[in-house]
Amino acid sequence: MNPANYLKIKNKIPSNVNILAVSKGFKSQEIITIQNIGQNDFGESKFQEAFEKQLILKDLKQINWHFIGRIQTNKIRKIVQNFKYIHSVDSFEKLQKISNISCEEEKNPFIMLQVKLTNDPSKGGFNPELLIAKWEEIKELKNIILTGLMTINPKGLSSEENLGLFKKCRILADSLQLPDCSMGMSGDWEEAIDAGSTWLRLGSLIFGGRS
Ligand SMILES: *Cc1c(COP(=O)(O)O)cnc(C)c1O
Question: What is the spatial distance between Cα 179 and Cα 209, in angstroms, rounded to a whole number?
């Protein structure tokens, strides 16, 4: 992990686009290194791994933790208790459960709904038509702050294909009046910016290769 690397990336990104530093697979010491140079948003995809780092880093109150991994229903309470943002809400049932638990826990997590824009069987998410059909019901849910949509593009697409999918996500978010789009990773962040991403989820680009 080289801080100069992080600063180089940060300088290339427009100021209205946020960087989520995806620290899964990296140690808390590496989080401290870039937290020291101004990065406060960190993304993790496995609850247990994240929680261990959260305990070590509990005195760094400026850190905002984002959950970006597949949500297991039996982990929802722990996720609600320990994360300010949840990017990967992929079904109405889980969203309802997050809302119910947030009421009980007196929390108000920021929520991004994961959308499924291709038939990639390895990725979950709301089907866009279903999301629109359910929208009035979704808006009624308590104790969640619906802030945007999230998408993960399949690997191996051309630059044009990546851009096209990201634009679909942006158009859908705009139609629902959601400000945020969590899209773009280390391999496709430039297209994501061009399409109107507000949260780039960057792991290896910042921290280097994962073992
Ligand atoms: C791991 C991960 C990332 C970051 O991936 P990189 O290619 O290392 O930037 C982004 N989003 C999700 C959902 C991830 O699981």
Answer: 31
